[in-house]
Amino acid sequence: MKCLLVLVLLFVSSISADYPLYIDELEDLVSWDDKRQLEILDDDDFTPRSQLKTQFDAILSRQSPAVQSAYQSKVAREENERKSEEQYKRMRYQARGLDSVYQQILSIDGDLSLSENQANQQVVLPLLSLISFSLADFPLYIEELADIVNWEDERILERLEEDYYTPRFEIQAKVKEILRRQSPALQAAYRALVANKENTRTARVAHMLRQHEMRGTSDVFRRILEVQADLRLSQNDAKKLMRDLKKML
What we know:
Elements: H1 24-27, H2 32-43, H3 49-61, H4 65-95, H5 99-109, H6 116-128, H7 143-146, H8 151-161, H9 168-180, H10 184-215, H11 218-229, H12 235-246
């Protein structure tokens, strides 16, 4: 990603949705009754995860050695993938001089004394103060989503952000599709983040408009805003039009 922007809820789903309990990995290997119990545990966002782990371990311990071995193999694969993605994220944070923030998020994510809901909330609060607002992300706000989704969705979003020739309404539709498949907590956090950015943008635009009114260039500035918001245009076309208009300011 191009800008030095740290985003909220990085760990709601970015490393592994199953970490640190890995309940899903056992569901397909057990009886129907045990599967139902595991689903209840998996959906419980309010019980401390240490208590969930105790109940989970009891279910795992009564499985056959073959099932336990198969489960451990699945977890090992998940852990390898998680660690690879964790290393990737670590490098990105280090490049921004925010390694301590990353370590804090890791600590929260792995703290079994917290419920899933508490962990999500504790990740959000310390990161909100790190967010810098800009006009560059308007109107698609792709980067705001890219750092809080899983590895695969992040790659898709990066490609969308670098697509300079597709009409932006088509890109926006794909971003919305990716957003829809995220967890409710992540969707709510993303929308709140975008709303905050929009509020800040509105205030900045109002300030800039007053400046252009004093200069007698408000009509050109309004036209720039219209071009910026016109989703029928590709990124490339919008930039060309805005560049030509800025020459008139």
